[in-house]
Amino acid sequence: MKHSHIYSFLHLPHFKKFRSAANISLDDATSCYSKDTRPALQTPHSNTRMQPLIWKLATSRHYKFLKDIVTLDVSWEEKMPVAIWRGQLTGSRDFYDKRLGDMENCNNMPRCRVVYELDNSTLVDAKLTTTRNRLPNELNNVSLVVQKTPIKQLLRYKAIIMLEGNDVASGLKWALLSQSVVLMPVPKHTSWAMEELLVPYVHYVPLKDDLSDVEQQMQWVLDNEDTAWKISQRSTLWMEDLCYHPDAVKDDTLVKEELLRRYAKHFRIIEDETEEATGSTTEIKKKKTM
């Protein structure tokens, strides 16, 4: 069920590391804690599709660099006045068409287009680390691909661009924790880090989905450095509270216990020898013990 969040026919409650982001506020999220039922989530993928229950999965990929930020990061004043992005040509399956030419495909894929168009930018350093064999490494004498950049080097930039690929941006957690400010489109997916509750111009600087305003938003960061620095501080506090607060482990445990309690409410055990599914409730029947 790798992409089960987009299938309308899946009616079995299930756990995943992410789901579609919902159009809810922090007040909406906290008000549902004492309720066993609530309206269907309003998400970019519509409210008619079964959304998975979020569980803290793939932690080695999404959280493993958090511990390095304290030792590798530098102060805001030491960072270069440039926004940096490094990433693969993922999340492009809806835009890539092998029948089209390389240039047309690049223009259709925001990740490639921003790399190509901002090749000479003094505000943005954007490069792919691989085209995943969809495009050549160079187009019209513009180099699209560079080797992977270590996090230590990424942290030397005032702004770090984070883009969702096939789901949540895997590097977003450490970028939020850092002293750099995050530039990204409004999240369309959410995970244990509650990306859907992050607020533009409070926890990050927003970008258009087509990335056409990256330079403009980076210029805003430089023109409003005090505000941008405060945004970076609030995002750092978000991650510190989530992962390093004295109650963080206890809170994680309580949330997981409540998730399991609600999950269990979708099922009931009755005495019989058959199995059947009725509506959204799966009835598991077991043999009587003689």
UniProtKB/TrEMBL annotation:
Keywords: Transferase. Residues 24-270 form the Glycosyl transferase CAP10 domain. It comes from the Eukaryota. InterPro entries: CAP10, O-Glucosyltr/Glycosyltrsf_90. GO terms for molecular function: transferase activity. It holds the Pfam family Glyco_transf_90. PANTHER family: KDEL LYS-ASP-GLU-LEU CONTAINING - RELATED, PROTEIN O-GLUCOSYLTRANSFERASE 1. Belongs to the glycosyltransferase 90 family. This is Glycosyl transferase CAP10 domain-containing protein. The lineage of its organism: Eukaryota, Sar, Stramenopiles, Ochrophyta, Bacillariophyta.
